[in-house]
Write a structure and sequence with these properties.
This protein is mainly alpha-helical. 63% of the residues lie in helices and 3% in strands. It has helices at residues 23-32, 37-54, 63-82, 89-106, 114-135, 142-157, 159-163, 169-172, 189-195, 199-213, and strands at residues 7-10, 13-15. A two-stranded antiparallel ribbon has the order 1-2. A hairpin with a 2-residue loop joins strand 1 (7-10) and strand 2 (13-15). The radius of gyration is 16 Å and the shape is globular.
Length: 214
């Protein structure tokens, strides 16, 4: 499916072609939801922020409805998923990323078929992108950086499997390949309230994004 098309990726919702960069993020969230609902929530919240950064006025075809429905889903999930962890959101995501790498990338290379490894590499790429945004200006530890570098190497290693699949370039873009305007700014509500989480801050951030869609 090309980058000019639309894809059904979220509860029957169609991802507008102008927001195609969200497809791998939402796909990763769907893939890990049963295993870690809170991290899946963080991925979707990141997708909300990225969608608003790319098209703040919701002028693209189908963008307003998509952003509104995604935001409502995130609002529902925020309270539900909080009970699944006793850690802060940055710590929960960091711990999950490291575990995902160790079990699915490092060890999975010897047990997974190439197609399965491609999926795991894509998910790990998204997780690291979200992690870097949530941590904002805080330093990422050397172990995590080493894991991320190996994931990048794996992307090159499995490139021929990726190219032979039916996935579009938009679905395979890594953190370093997005345009500057695609990047969630440091002052975004996502970064502000998840980096220093509290129920009030999260609620206010969701209200702020809701108003922008009104």
């Amino acid at each position: 499916m090309g980058s000019t098309s639309e894809e059904n990726i979220m509860d029957g919702e169609i991802v507008p072609s102008s927001l195609a960069v969200l497809v791998p993020i939402l796909r990763a969230a769907n893939s890990i939801e049963l295993e870690n609902p809170r991290v899946a929530f963080l991925c979707r919240w990141y997708a909300v922020e990225k969608a608003h950064t790319i098209d703040p006025t919701s002028s693209g075809h189908g963008v307003r409805q998509f952003k509104t429905n995604l935001l409502r889903k995130v609002e529902r999930e925020e309270e539900i998923t909080q009970k699944h962890t006793n850690r802060t959101d940055p710590r929960e995501l960091l711990n999950y990323y490291q575990t995902f790498y160790e079990t699915r990338i490092r060890d999975g290379e010897f047990t997974k078929e190439p197609e399965g490894m491609v999926t795991n590499v894509q998910i790990a790429t998204v997780l690291y992108e979200v992690l870097k945004t949530i941590l904002a200006h805080r330093t990422i530890d050397d172990k995590t950086k080493k894991y991320a570098a190996d994931v990048e190497n794996k992307k090159g290693q499995y490139e021929h499997y990726i190219c032979s699949s039916s996935c579009s370039d938009d679905k395979l873009r890594g953190p370093g390949s997005y345009q500057r305007d695609d990047v969630v700014p440091d002052e975004s509500p996502l970064v502000a309230c998840i980096s220093e989480p509290s129920e009030e801050k999260i609620d206010n951030a969701l209200k702020e994004l809701s108003k922008s869609q009104g």
